[in-house]
Amino acid sequence: MRTRAALALEAGKPLVVTEVDLEGPKAGEVLIEVKATGICHTDDFTLSGADPEGLFPAILGHEGAGVVVDVGPGVTSVKKGDHVIPLYTPECRECPSCLSRKTNLCTAIRSTQGQGMMPDGTSRFSVNGEKIHHYMGCSTFSNFTVLPEIAVAKVNPDAPFDKICYIGCGVTTGIGAVINTAKVEIGATAIVFGLGGIGLNVIQGLKLAGADMIIGVDLNDDKKEWGEKFGMTHFVNPRDAGDDIVPFLVNMTKRGADQIGGADYTFDCTGNTKVMRQALEASHRGWGKSVVIGVAGAGQEISTRPFQLVTGRSWMGTAFGGARGRTDVPKIVDWYMDGKIQIDPMITHLLKLDDINKGFEMMHSGESIRSVVVY
Ligand code: NAD
Ligand code: AHE
Ligand code: ZN
């Protein structure tokens, strides 16, 4: 079949909206009509050329929602007409990682996914016979796409596509980082670095978990109002914090008889390795947990004095908020439908596929929180 898609032809160049050829689903695969897709900073990261796994030409996009329109042989868990969210972290429930119950990082199809292929090592997308790579196993910047059945979560059919697509990455990553990865408790103190599409969901997760002091840090003062909407109690612009933001934040979080500062939990949602270090060092001596969420480019490394870890801080990371997609994503959709979490205010712009490059521009300028393309 033919479908419209935004093609990433080469690094650093705008996407090109065009018709592409799409083969139907093979064994164990499903064909999805994508109804809406968010634009995440990770799409921009890969398009920029900084992603060591980035492949071109490709169809990017990994934050979608849609309907199953066809299934390949042997598919049993979903059927035509089901509403689904594509999962860049699948859940096969059979691999050693899934069975370990210690991680959400299913390994069933990770190697072919990283090569921009379906599990059989081929691509379903092409233009004039030339292969186009899949991206993160999802390629939601195409009106129709093919995914393995283990990489789709069946969700409540009443849920609006243009909102729940955000659960395909940003919402789940932010809230999951708090609940699944950091396991934040009632009364905790926390610092969130970077108040974009992910950081605001970390704040929303901290509020849900019952954190007391929630400090947001961003270079953009407009993010103060945004953070406060979701439960942030204090805002710091690093430019107003003197030469080193770490002692500033440690001082802000001083409490107890010994007056040792530092937050119980810190989260990097910037992808900046210097900020990751600040986040670790602004966590509390003895028990602080610092969670890396941001993704950094090829060749970038994090560093700190080992003393920071010797004195009891833990440096951890999370992908997709530690969520097991087929199990957890339907529940998060229900939380949204039950009014337990907010999504609507964070979706600041709805775009047509033809205008997808505007979504990237508004992400760069800080004008948008999430832009969503509606097909
Ligand atoms: P975004 O562009 O919406 O937000 C980034 C925010 O960080 C902006 O508000 C920006 O002003 C702020 N910022 C940038 N540099 C800063 C600095 N030095 N100090 C303080 N604030 C700074 O991006 P997003 O969609 O929220 O994504 C954030 C990061 O998370 C990206 O690196 C993205 O690739 C990554 N990500 C990771 C996962 C995962 O599973 N680990 C999932 C989604 C996104
Ligand atoms: N390809 C990059 C890493 C990118 C990365 O870490 N991606 C996250 C999801 S970001 C969603 O917006 C992820 O799921 N990581 C786990 C995995 O298996 O990729 C690189 O640096 O090579
Ligand atoms: Zn993402």
From TrEMBL:
Gene3D superfamilies: Medium-chain alcohol dehydrogenases, catalytic domain (3.90.180.10), NAD(P)-binding Rossmann-like Domain (3.40.50.720)
Keywords from the named record: Metal-binding, NAD, Oxidoreductase, Zinc
Domain Alcohol dehydrogenase-like N-terminal: 27-117
InterPro entries in the record: ADH-like_C, ADH-like_N, ADH_3, ADH_Zn_CS, GroES-like_sf, NAD(P)-bd_dom_sf
Reaction equation(s) it catalyzes: a secondary alcohol + NAD(+) = a ketone + NADH + H(+); a primary alcohol + NAD(+) = an aldehyde + NADH + H(+); S-(hydroxymethyl)glutathione + NAD(+) = S-formylglutathione + NADH + H(+); S-(hydroxymethyl)glutathione + NADP(+) = S-formylglutathione + NADPH + H(+)
Keyword NAD: yes
PANTHER family named among the record's database cross-references: ALCOHOL DEHYDROGENASE, ALCOHOL DEHYDROGENASE CLASS-3
Name this polypeptide is given: S-(hydroxymethyl)glutathione dehydrogenase
Enzyme nomenclature, EC number: 1.1.1.284
Pfam families per record: ADH_N, ADH_zinc_N
Organism: Rhizobium halophytocola
Alcohol dehydrogenase-like C-terminal domain location: 197-335
GO molecular function, one term: S-(hydroxymethyl)glutathione dehydrogenase [NAD(P)+] activity
Required co-factors: Zn(2+)
Family note: Belongs to the zinc-containing alcohol dehydrogenase family. Class-III subfamily.
Residue stretches spanning the membrane: none
Broadest EC class assigned to this enzyme: oxidoreductase
